[in-house]
Amino acid sequence: MSVGYCAVQWNRAKIIYDAILLAGIVLYISMFLLIAARVDPPKDLAATIDLLIRAFGSCAFVMLTIILAIGPLARLDRRFLPLLYNRRHFGVLTFIVALLHVAFMLQWYAVQGNLPNLVTELTTWADYGKFIGFPFKVLGIAALIVLFLMAATSHDFWLAFLGPPIWKALHMALYVAYGLVVMHVALGIMQYEHTVLIPLMLIVGFTTVTILHLVAGWRERRADKGTVARDGWIAVGAPHAIPDKRARIVAAPGGERIAVFRDGSLIGALTNLCAHQNGPVGEGCIIDGFVTCPWHGFQYRLADGCAPPPFTEKLATYRVRVRDGIVEVNPNSLPAGTPATVRFEA
Ligand code: HEM
Ligand code: FES
Asked: Which ligand 2 atom is the nearest neighbour of the CA of 274?
């Protein structure tokens, strides 16, 4: 919850999350180096540095794949929600791992006194028209710039400054970075290193991310479908079809998703977009009397969408009614913080 822009502070859960993440990175890099050095022992310093380039590059790719998979995984199965909690630190660490990949690459050129060759490679403009021989490092540089921008704007200050919709749109650039990295590897090392492991890494990563997004999107659309419009209102279902202290999510004609919550005999509707990072409020539940976002725990009153004092966030509310035993919601949002709940006879 936030007062000003200090939304999510350091806490024990975050420290454990980061510790596990760091341990995972150290384990991956050590295993990669151990196995690769055993299969093909490096003959000189340059070959040793090359191993480090590969270990950190592939680690950054795996991390990017996991970050992109967390969103749909958390939608498909609530047990993945803890992964979402500190996804921003995951992103910043990915940038640092990618930066180390580049640092070792620079060292690789430096130990051979070859740094000017790197500049020549990047400025041989004729090569940009080639498929085999394309300066693939440029694609890596572009991806790194995107990761840097995202790491630099990941703090809650930027979230408050830009507003959740713009901030979230900016962070969608991660998909662009992922595409650039796939091309960086496909046009780079995959062209001259004939091992099945590299295409396998790209295909498994890319396909996993794509399939998870398709399945999660399909599930959401299917969940929205049960809604029938009646004089402009949307039918949600019988009051008891909404689980107590939880919500059913319906889509307004414009596509905006509305979370219709039930708290005992009280029914209220809020926008499904959390004021923090646009998380899916309707996938949360009512804890201690407050609607609680599943991503980082921001809380709102069901009655009017306002966060409890001293917090100041407010969500748009929607009018609800119960007609012929069916809960209906008006898809036109009310100004954030407007009271709009109804009670039904049990
Ligand atoms: C987000 C940033 C980046 C990511 C995630 C990334 C990822 C990767 C991956 C996965 C590989 C293949 C590693 C393997 O063999 O398993 C690779 C190779 C390589 N990358 Fe990057 N890369 C990034 C940025 C860059 C940049 C900016 C440069 C240079 C300016 C660069 C230079 C290289 C080189 C030279 C190789 C080939 C290494 C070799 O031949 O052994 N990368 N990268
Ligand atoms: S609490 Fe962070 S998105 Fe809702």
From this structure: 4
Other residues' Cβ atoms within 10 Å of the Cβ of residue 200: 10
Dist CA 162 CA 156 (whole Å):
10
User: What are the C-alpha distances in Å from 193 to residues 180, 197, 315?
Assistant: 19, 10, 53
Q: Is the CB of 277 under 6 A from ligand 2?
A: yes
Q: Kind and range of the H or E element at 68? A: helix 45-76
Per-residue pLDDT for the chain (346 aa), expressed as one digit of tens each? 544 444 445 677 788 889 999 999 999 999 999 999 999 999 999 999 999 999 999 999 999 999 999 989 988 887 888 888 778 889 999 999 999 999 999 999 999 999 999 999 999 999 998 888 899 999 999 999 999 999 888 877 787 788 777 877 888 899 999 999 999 999 998 888 888 999 999 999 999 999 999 999 888 777 665 566 668 899 998 999 999 999 999 988 877 889 999 999 999 999 999 998 888 899 899 998 899 998 888 999 999 999 998 999 999 999 999 988 899 999 999 999 999 999 987 6
CA pair distance 261, 343, nearest whole angstrom = 12
Q: How far away, in angstroms, is 144 Cα from ligand 1 center?
A: 10
CB 302 within 8 A of CB 342: no
Would you say the CB of residue 182 lies under 6 angstroms from ligand 1? no
DSSP secondary structure string for all residues of 31-50: HHHHHHHHHS---SHHHHHH
How crowded is residue 264: how many other Cβ atoms within 10 Å of its Cβ?
A: 11
CA-atom Rg of the chain in angstroms: 25
**Is there a contact between 291 and 306 (Cβ–Cβ < 8 Å)?**
no
Note if the bond before 310 is cis, omega within 30 degrees.
Answer: yes
Q: Is the CB of 51 under 6 A from ligand 1?
A: no
Best CA proximity match to 25, nearest among 58, 74, 47, 51: 58
Number of helical H runs and strand E runs in the chain? 11, 12
Structure tokens at 56: 């950190």
Pick from 258, 296, 290: nearest CA to 276: 296
Instruction: State whether residue 177 is helix, strand or coil.
Output: helix
